[in-house]
Amino acid sequence: MDCLALRDGLFFGNQVVSGLATGGVYALVALGLVLIYKATQVVNFAQGDLLLLGAYVGWALTSVGLPFPVAFSLTLVLAAAGGLAVERLILRRMIGSPLIAVIIVTLGLSSMLRGVVFLVAGTEVRRFPEDVFGGPPVEVGPVLVPQIHAWALAIAAAAVAVLALFFRYSRQGVALRAAADDQQAAMSMGIRISRTFALSWGLSASVAAIGGILLGNLSGVNFTLADLGQQVFPVAILGGLDSLAGAIVGGLLIGVLQSVASGYVDPCVGGGLRDVVPFFALVVILMVRPRGLFGRAQIERV
Amino acid sequence: MPARALTAGPQLVVADLHLRFGGVVALAGASLAVQHGELAAIIGPNGAGKTSLLNTISGLYRPQRGRVDFEGRSLVGYPPHHVARLGIARTFQNLGLFRGLSVLDNLLLGRHLHLRTGLLTGGLYWGPARKDEIAHRGLVEEILLFLDLQHVRDQVVGTLAYGVQKRVELGRALAQAPRLLLLDEPMAGMNVQEKEDMARFVLAVNQTRRVTVLMIEHDMGVVMHLSQRIHVLDFGRTIAAGTPEQVGRDPRVIRAYLGQEVA
Amino acid sequence: MLAALYVAVPALASAYQVYVLSTILVACIGALGLNLLTGYAGQVSIGQGGFLGVGAFTSALLASRTGVPFWLSVPAAGLVTALVGLVFGLPSARIKGLYLAIATLAAQVIIQWTLSRPAIAGGGSVAAPRPGVLQDDRIYYLVVLSVALLAVAFARNVLRTRVGRALVAVRDHEVAPAMIGVDVAQHKLLAFGLSALYAGIAGALLGHLGRAVTVEQFQLDLSIQYLAMIVIGGLGSLPGSILGALFVTLLPILLRAAVAPIDGLLPGSAAMVLSSVQVFLFGLIIVVCMAVEPRGLARLWARLGGALTR
After folding, report:
1. pLDDT at B168
2. Among C96, C110, C279, whose Cβ lies nearest the Cβ of A111?
3. Which of A38, A55, B180, C220 has CB 3.0 to 4.6 Å from A180, enough for a Cys bridge?
4. CB–CB of B98 and C181 under 8 A?
5. Do the chains contact at B119 and C166, CB–CB below 8 Å?
6. What is the pLDDT of residues B241-263, one digit of tens each?
7. Is the domain of B117 the same as that of B161?
């Protein structure tokens, strides 16, 4: 392949579509990151590793014979439980500590998760059962979209929709948004902040797990999922660390950016652009417009 | 360093200041003038915009409209550290002290602008750096003596009594050798004895060290006793200014505080 | 104490022990740098591993590809890394310290990618030769020791003069330092540059210690290791940086000794098991320390000392 060779529109279309699929998944996982940030002011550096863990747990459950939907749901539940446990056992102890301490704790957590996964799973690539998302590609105009891409995007979109409905119409969801917006006011209305903290962690872990399973289907379950998981940070910064809508837009944009960049520019630089281009974008965003596309100007200094 | 009359006319002029945060109006035409060497106070009900005014003068906020001139030079648009460099120091309502550092280190931080030592020279800590450090320590010792803080010089600030912490903050502001000192509620949260001590020190700073003082204060007794001139703010606007006697009799002031006409 | 380090150690210790000590000393320099940035200036950084890599590769490339002598390549590596640190520290002028951590993650990822380009090493290793005089591990150790001592003295001096105080002020408050005349943006940037300088020199020394450098040595896990060092030792504590470096460097060695007997029973190779257990443990250490005693070993030591002298 030649560097920057302008191939036909079909190639471009394929890159965009596969980018949208991964981007949709990023969007979902980034929602979790934004959720925790909005509710607790903490940047959860373990979000990417929760994705990794979710992928392996999901795979493990399918490999012992559970049908995919069951494995999927069970992983979700386990992830939620895990998120709640982390919040309860570790983060609640740190209430009152300076934020820098809590952020360092999430870094430590991230390392712990990686260590466990690496120890148990090693470096081989695992694959989800082929028949789950096998089947003929979907036709979208001239572009042939592999089933798995279509499903990934669809499931991610469905999850986002469910979350949106949850935030809009359920009591817990509204309480969460209120607490994320103004903790004092929420408390004075009787909303239990500890519960919203727990809820945000449980939800974030779940969406990370969904993301992990989807990405695991897209590109195999192996340690490099950790690198994909890391992309959630450029996504959140691009969209705006405190914007739920931003996470969605950011995810799709980064997904497409990754895909197009690696498709066209990889040959020029010896590969590997997929994982690093979003971070170049992140540095640019931080220099030019730190609050991202939709964030409020909160991360900028007075 | 005494407040020298560098320019004719007032040292600080604030004219028709307007400040808004989104929909919230903080200042709507605040004005005042402070003469060289004066001890002036800003009073007004809660939410009148007093701290916003001080914050705007010190460069933390940028007003939408209006002028702030210090010794003939406009301050609007300058970042806070530049305003400090021009000779203005301030204290904060909630204490802007560095609680993990000792009293001495906090005061030495006040000398930041005057010390010459940089990264390399400081790291090597050779002749000039050493002399610099020692010279400024001497200056700071003098302030410690002036404010009666020598006995706590090595103590970590976070462990001190509130009243003492406020005095340390005053000391740090003094260490900057300012020509104008902005105090945001220096007596807040103090008991009677601490207030008397602080009042004594503020007066001494103004009279003996000849530093112009502009302070926000709620304690009327202190304000009436110390200040030569009082500016009254309400709803972000100056509603009266004058000597303590004049202001105390002004019906607009009384109405602002009590919310009703006084016959 | 100094005499012991300079004379007794080379004379009495085995070559392996001297090598380990050199590794610890290198870690001390890197940990000091990170503590200056994170512990003293309050900017969380997970890019230290990457910066060490920049230093290591710069010195190795200069020495092996362009024949620059060790005595020049190491300081040059430090300066180059400082510059890279300044570039990645630029966002600090506009964003609050906590979110800067994400920028340091970007630094780590970008540096890792850059160092693995074909032009540099293509994933292979770059030789980092030592000059004739330093071939002996014991002599090299003396050089590393001297640099480490200089690094400690320099840091200590900086911290007790104007710039160091300003750095601490920047950590503790967002607004107040500006009112004293401290240019907050400038000082944050300075902290990045200084921290990267230390990392660069540490990396260069490490590279020449092992006589070769590869990208695998300088990944995110190394950054987390350094974070663990300053967390254990104590954020914002000079002796803590040293204690932490000692502890964290020795831990893998102890682990290796512990795992050796049961090598056959483990899934996968011993190396992989060790690596993952290590990663897990460092994370656990960070979590436990921050939750229990954020001021680290140094503080515990001080408290213990205080309790004993009562």
Report:
1. 94
2. C279
3. A38
4. no
5. no
6. 999 888 888 888 888 776 544 44
7. yes
* Shortest CA gap A270–chain C (Å): 7
Q: Could you tell me if C287 lies within 8 Å of chain A, comparing CB atoms?
A: yes
CB proximity B228 to C under 8 Å: no
Alpha-carbon distance B144 to C143, whole Å? 45
Q: Is residue B233 part of a domain?
A: yes
* pLDDT of A119 higher than 60: yes
Residue scoring higher pLDDT (A273 or C259) = A273
Assigned domain for B94 exists:
no
Q: Do B100 and C236 touch (CB under 8 A)?
A: yes
Domain co-membership, B152 together with B184: no
Q: What is the pTM of this model?
A: 0.87
Q: Which domain, by its residues, includes C125?
A: 2-218
Q: What is the mean pLDDT of residues C274-296?
A: 84
Overall domain count for chain B:
2
* ipTM of model: 0.88
B105 at interface of C, judged by CB pairs closer than 8 A: yes
Distance CA C81, CA C53 (A): 9
Tally of domains in chain C: 1
| C166/B96 Cβ within 8 A | no
Domain at B72, CATH number? 3.40.50.300
What are C44-56's pLDDT values in tens digits? Answer: 899 999 999 999 9
From B176, B201, B224, give the residue that closes a domain: B176
CATH class of the domain at A9-123+139-288:
mainly alpha
Interface test with C, best of A119, A124, A265, A268 (most C CBs within 10 A): A119
Report the alpha-carbon distance of residue B205 to residue B181 in Å, rounded: 9
Task: Give the domain extent around B252.
Answer: 1-87+177-263
Both tokens of B30, joined, read 């605040």
The domain ranges of chain A are: 9-123+139-288
| pLDDT higher at A256 or C125 | A256
Q: What is the reported pLDDT for C261?
A: 73
Instruction: State whether residue B86 sits within 8 Å of chain C by CB.
Output: no
